[in-house]
Each structure stands twice: as C-alpha cells, then as structure tokens.
Predict the 3D structure of the following.
Amino acid sequence: MSASNEKNNRYLLTDWKPENPAFWENKGKHIARRNLWISVSCLLLAFCVWMLFSAVAVNLNKIGFNFTTDQLFLLTALPSLSGAILRVPYSFMVPIFGGRRWTIFSTVILVIPCVWLGFAVQNTATPFGVFIIIALMCGFAGANFASSMGNISFFFPKAKQGSALGINGGLGNLGVSVMQLIAPLVIFLPIFTFLGVQGVPQADGSLLSLANAAWIWVPLLLIATVAAGIGMNDIASSKASIASQLPVLKRFSFVVIKSAVSRHLRFIYRFFSRLCHAGENTVP
C-alpha cells in the first residue's frame, strides 16, 4: 500500500500509542475493545468450524456412508493436524497484511469447507478422499488462533495484554463447546429444506439432515466477516515484511514453545473428537 493510500485509509491506525495513558483513556481503549470483541466472535466461529468433523463423522454411516471406524477417526484428527501445522505461517500474516485484512480473509475462507461439506454429505457416492480434503481445510480454522492472538496483542498496552489475550483465546475456545451443543440439535431440524436438504430417516422415526451441521455456520461466518470489515482496524506500526520476521524461527525457545503448544492442543482436540464416538464405538 502506498503512502497516499495509507493516509486515506480510515481503517489504518497510523499513530497508535497504547502505552500513552492519556491516549489510551481518551481514544485507545475504545478502539481496542471494539477490535477485541469482533476478534472473539470470529475466533469462536473458527473453533466451531475446526471441530466440525467431530460432530459430523460420527453420523456419516447413519445417512448411508460405509466408512470404517479408523476412517472416521482419521477425519476427526485431520483438522487438528493441519491446524497445528498452519499456525506457524499464520502467526506471520498479521504484520504482513494487517490484522483487519487478515481477519476478514481468514474468516470468510472458512465458508468454503462448510459449504462443500454440506453438499458432500448429501451424496453417499462422495469418495472418502473428498472428505479428507474438506477435513484438512477445516484446519485453516484452527490456525486462526495464532493470527488472532498476535493481532490483539498489538492493540493493548503491555499491562493489559494478559487479560485481553485471555478473553480472546478463552472465549474463542468456547467455539468447541458451542459446536458440540448446536450441531447435534440442528441436524434434526428442517432448517435448509428450502435449499433442497432432505433428511435421512432414522430407526427412531426422526430425519437426520447432516448438512445442517455444516451450513448453519455459513451465515454466521459471513456476518462476522462483515463485522470485521466494518469494525476492525490495521495498525501501521505492526507492519513487517516476511524477511524481517524469519529470524525468529532460528530461536530455539520459539521452536520449543510452538511445538509444545501444538502437541498440547492436538491432544485436547483429539480427546474431544474421540469422545464424540464413545457412544458408538470402543475408542482404540
């Protein structure tokens, strides 16, 4: 972006001084809080998409698919794998593109696996390989955690970064619980019949519309994307090229911490994913 474009960009904060008490009280905290709550909403929905397969996979065979238990477990594990890997490049994106721009992109792109999954579950001829690709794409949602936390840290003074990041990460992680609560409810409701979604009859007489579990997030993701576009900001002082950020990869502490966090999160999400199958199968 040229200097003239930056000057005319009303979303770009060119004089951001959160450590200045007067600036923070008069202007800074209001802007920071607005960005924080929009970020929380986007991150919460991202976690919903990340854990989507833990609710979908357990029901695939109930609507006509014939996947093995190992295949179903693989589908629930793949988003965690791709999400953990993608968190490394995602952590560099905010200084390159700006927090507002990257939040818009990283949120709206999650519409793709949701829409695709909704169509895939309606056709029992959909090959397992397609579900693998969609599951890997859901991992983009898990990577949003890295860029979201990095972005919010720029908005707050050091004394308040801990609480701000706790709110962003803590409430964002609630997306796991929200998805586990909402998905099992909406798959039995005639929500998208106007789009041709037909429920599959079950033994108890109910109709299972598995596409609902994926499509229910699409309008919410679009709303969050618009909110990010209207209400969030980029910070000029946080901009940095990829070349200036690469040296951090050479730091041993960075590699160790990133690896430990990724392993810890993969364990947590694998646990919850397999827990969803506990009522149907014996967890290996």
Remarks:
- The chain has a mean pLDDT of 86.
- Residues 251-283 form one domain.
- DSSP finds 14 helices and four strands in the chain.
- The longest strand covers residues 12-13.
